Amino acid sequence: MYGSPEVSLLSKEGDIIIGGAFSIYSQISMSFLSEYETPEPFKCSRINLREFRFVQTMIFAIEEINNSSDLLPNVSVGYRIFDSCGSTLPSTRAVMGLMNGEENSWRKNCSSVHAIIGASESSSTIAMQQISGVFQTPMISHFATCACLSNRKEYPSFFRTIPSDYYQSRALAKLVKHFGWTWVGAVRSDNDYGNNGMATFIEAASQEGICVEYSESISRTGSRENVERVVRVIRRGTAGVLVAFLAQGEMDVLLEEVLTQNLTGLQWVGSESWITANYLAEKRYAGILTGSLGFAIRKAKIRGFDLLREFWETTFGCSFRSGTPGTKLCSGFERLQDADNAFTDVSELRISNNVYKAVYAVAHAFHGLLKSWKINGCFCFVIFSLVAEQLQKVNFTLQSGERVHFDENGDPAATYELVNWQRNQAGDVVFTTVGKYDASQPNWNQFTMSNVKITWAAESWERPLSVCSENCLPGFRQAIIKGKPICCFSCVPCGGGEISNTNNSAGCSQCPSEYWSNVDHSKCVPKVIEFLSYGETMGALLTAFSLCGASLTLVVLCVFFRFRHTPLVKASNSELSFLLLFSLTLCFLCSLAFIGRPTEWSCMLRHTAFGVAFALCISCILAKTITVVMAFKAKRPANTFPQCSAPLQRTSVIGCTLIQVFICVVWLVFAPPFPHKNTVYASEKIILECFLGSPVAFWVVMAYIGFLALLCFILAFLGRKLPDNFNEAKFITFSMLIFSAVWLTFIPAYVSSPGKFTVAVEIFAILASSFGLLFCIFAPKCYILLLKPERNTKKHLMGRNQSKTQ
Fold this sequence. Notes:
disordered C terminus, alpha/beta, Rossmann fold
C-alpha cells in the first residue's frame, strides 16, 4: 500500500461486508467562486443531503436484513461507506479503500468488501468499475444511468437498479414528439452521463423527425465564461423547448446563470437526475422551472423508513427522550405532511428505493450461495464471480410488491413516470404524475398519458409551440430549405389532382383517375363529367337551331305539296324534291343524337344516322343534277340521249344510299362506337365522349359523302350555263360550294377542338351544311311560289327559254 490508507466514514463489521460509495460531500462549483477565490484541489466541503439520505437507506436496509429470520439467517451483514465526492479521482480512492480494507479490521484475512453499492454519477461509477472489475467484485449502482455500462464485455460484474439512459433518452424523444415539438434546444453535462445520454436522445429524436437547434455542454467545475456563453446561446435560440440532460451539479450552475441573465419562458424537459429534486422547487427557481416535464423513477414506499427517530426529531425539533434541555417532547402525532425539509422529500424515495433494492439484491445473492454452496457462515474466500452469477439470477419481490430482477446486461425493467411541476392550492411546487413509459410494451403503447391537466412553461395552461417552421396545413406539403435542418421547411401547395389531408405532410398523394382535388387540395372529389347537354347554353342553342331547321324544312315540304301541280314544282322533279326535303329533315334531326349524355345506343346512332341521312340527301341532289343536265341535252335536235326516267332516279338514289348503309353496318358489326371516359385530355375533369371504335370507318363514311358531293359539284358546274328556266344546276353548284367549304373547314376544327366542343363542331357542320342546301336549292323556288306566282306558269317558263335560245 502506497500512501495513507482511506478511512471509511461509516462502517460496521459483519460476516458479509457491503461497500458503499456516495457523494456525501461534493466539490464547490467554479461558477460559484469569485474571480479572486481559488478552490482547493479535490476538496469536498459541501454536504449533499440527498446522498446522505441514500446512506441512511443503505444502513436501514442492512439493519432490516440483520433482523430478518428468513433472509440470511445466522449471518450478519456489515457495511463500509466511503465518500466519492461526486468526482472521478475521489471515487477512485474510495474504491481502492473498499478493495484494500482497513488495518484495524478484526477480519484481517478478508478485509475487502464482497459487493459495492454506488456510485451516483456515471463517470465515477465507470472509474470505480474499472478497478473493482479487475477482481470481479460485484457492483450495483442506484443512480448511474449511462448506457455504456450495459456493455457486458467491459463491465461483466456491474449491475444497477435504475434503468439505462438508452431507454430514458428514447422516452424523452417520444415525449417531445407527442407534444409536437420538432425544434428543441439541448444542454447536457460534460461527462459520461450527459454526453452518452444526449447522443442517444439526438439519435432517437432524429428518428422521430425532431431537430435539435443547438446542443451545448457544461461542467460544474468548468469556467463561468462557458456557462455564460451557453445561456446566451439558449437566449438567442428560437426553440421554445429546452431538453436538459444534466446532473444536479450542472443543473445548479446553469440555473444560477439563468437567473443572472433573467432567462424565462422556456419549456424545460428534464432527465431523471434533477426532475424530482425537491430543493430545486424552492422559490428561487420555481419561477423558472414550474411547468417542467420529465421522466422519473417510479415512486416507492419503504415501510418504516420515514419514521426513523432521527428524521422525526430533526423534522419537528423535538425529542423522544424526556428531560432533554431546550427540546420539547415528541408526541408522535406530528404531521409529516406539514414538514418541509430534505428528510421529508417523498420524491427522493424514488432513488432511495433503488439503494434499498440494491442492498436486498446482494443479500438475496448471498442467500442463494448459502443454499447452493453449503457455505457455513464464512464468506472470506468466496469467489466474487460466484456472487455476480447469483446476482444475475436474483428474482424476488419486496414488501411493497415491487419485483426485482436483472436482464442479461445487468439492467432492471425500464419503467418511468412522467412528472409535471405544478403548484398546489398552497402555492407550493409539487411533482404530479401525468403519464408513464414502459419499455417492455410494444412500441406504440410504451408512452401513455394520464387524464391529468398539465401546467406548461410560465404556469400557463396552453401548450407552447416549438417548431422551426409553422405547420403546413392540409393541401400543402413540406419542402426542405437548402442548407437547413429537415424541420425547417417551406409549405408548397399540392398540384392539381394531388391532396394532403394532414398537417405537415411530407408529400402530396395523387387522386385516383376518376377523382380530382378540391379547391383546398385537402380531399379527392369525383371529377366533373363533361359532355354537351341540353341544359347548357350551347346545347340549348344547337337544339333550337336543329329543330328550327327541321321545322323550316317541313314548311317548305308543305309549300311544295300545296303547289305540287304547278309547272315550277313539276319542272323541279317533285318526287326528288320531296325525297330531298325528307332527307334534309333527317339531317337536321340527326344532330340531336349528338347532344346529351353518351350511351351505347346514342354513340352507335349518331354517326351512322348522320352518314346515311347525308348520303340520302346528296344522292337526291346528284339525281336532280343528272336530271337537269340530261333534260337540257334532250331538247337539242341532234341529241339522242334518253331522258332520265323516274325508276332510274329512284334506283340511283337507293343504290348510292345503300352503299353508305353497307359501310355503316360493317362499322357497327366489327368496331362500333361506344361511350368513353377521356381523362387524358383534361386531367381535372372527365370528358364523356363517344369513341369512334374504328376511326377508319368514320373517315370512310365522311369520304363517301365527300365523293357524292364532288360528283354533284362537277355535274352542276358543267350545267351552270343552261337557260334560266332549266338552270337549277347553278343553285346546286352554289349549295355544293357551301357544303364543301363547311366540311373542309370541319376537319381541322374537329381534330383540334377539346372535349364537348368536338361534338359542337360536328353539330355545327351538320346544321350549316343542311341550312346551306335548304336555302340554296329551295329558297328561289319558294320565292316564286309564294311571292311571284305569275312566273309559275308553263308559258312563262317556255317563253323565257325561247327568248334566250333565239
